[in-house]
Amino acid sequence: MSARPKVAFFEFTSCEGCQLTVLDALQDHPELLDAIEIVQFREAMSERGQDYQIAFIEGSCSRPSDEAKLKEIRAQASIVIALGACAHLGGINAIRNRAPLAEVRAYVYGDKAEWFETYPARAISAVIPVDAVLPGCPIDRRELVRAVTHLLQGRLPYIPDQPLCIECKLKENVCVYQRGKVCLGPITLAGCDAICPTYGDGCEGCRGLIAHPNLESLRLVMAEHGVPEAEIEAKMTMFLTNQMEALQEAG
Ligand code: SF4
Ligand code: SF4
Ligand code: SF4
To answer: What is the arithmetic mean of pLDDT over 62-77?
Structure first.
């Protein structure tokens, strides 16, 4: 890789909030722009450079035509990084996978449903190999800066596999279960500084599951706190639909 690697940003099905967070982070760390060369970033510039070594991809794969574009990016880039929960997990887009596709299409597009191609929303890793992930909805800007630093050092970004509760306890937060709220902290990957519990809300699992989540125990805790079964399912499938399905399939 050259001294100043060429970087491109792409989006698929997403709200572009993760790319906005990249711009935010670059405003705080303009020195990164001296270390990398951004050749394509639709949200920030008009140029469309096709010569890049690192691709950051935001958004889920949600239609057949996305696959060819993803494969094209993979063929060009030495390193592909999934940017945010949509690309990492399918994200909130994957909620729709839980209803029959025909119903979802009719609900969204009405009698124009046939005009728009779509299929179940998936993580980009379902289509192409991904070298690293920056989780979250949106991504954490400090993690992005660390990731770029690691890439410049010739390393892949690394996210420690530990549950959010560890960060939450280090911040000496009162557990939101003590306040009658629901939280996915015990099964969710840490790294966001436990921002939701710190501000009094339960974690929704936007950073995805830790490697070995104890789902049964968490379901029991929720049930003991009187959380209705429907709410448990809604929590577990807000960001985690595809991961839950994969766990079920794995038995
Ligand atoms: S992960 Fe969240 S913030 Fe990022 S693109 Fe998807 S919906 Fe938007
Ligand atoms: S609030 Fe959530 S993250 Fe914090 S300790 Fe309780 S369950 Fe864990
Ligand atoms: S606390 Fe949970 S939902 Fe909130 S940002 Fe962190 S991982 Fe996402």
So the answer is: 98
What's the confidence (pLDDT) of residue 235?
Answer: 95
Count CA within 13 A, CB hemisphere, residue 241.
20
Planar angle of CA 163, 142, 126, nearest 5 degrees: 60
Rg for the chain, CA atoms, rounded: 19
Three-state DSSP at 37 gives: strand
Judge whether 118 and 111 are in contact, CB under 8 Å: no
Q: Which atom of ligand 3 is found nearest the CA of 195? A: 1
Give the pLDDT confidence score for residue 36 in this predicted structure: 97
The domain segmentation of the chain, as residue ranges, is 6-152, 164-250
DSSP state of 194: S
Rounded average pLDDT over 98-115: 94
Cα separation, 190 vs 208, in Å, equals: 9
Residue 1 has pLDDT above 70, yes or no: no
Task: Give the strand pairing for 132-134 and 79-83.
Answer: parallel
β-sheet with 37-41: strand ranges across: 37-41, 6-11, 54-58, 79-83, 132-134
Class of the CATH domain delimited by 6-152: alpha beta
Question: Ligand 2 mean position to 91 CA, how many Å?
Answer: 21
Q: How far is CA 4 from CA 76, 133, 233, in A?
A: 17, 22, 46
197 Cβ below 6 A of ligand 2: yes
Please report which ligand is nearest the Cα atom of 82. Answer: 1
- Cα 197 to ligand 2 centre (Å): 6
pLDDT at 3: 74
Give the residue among 170, 196, 174, 171 at the shortest CA–CA distance from 185. Answer: 196
Distance CA 243, CA 170 (A): 27
Is the pLDDT at 24 greater than 90, yes or no? yes
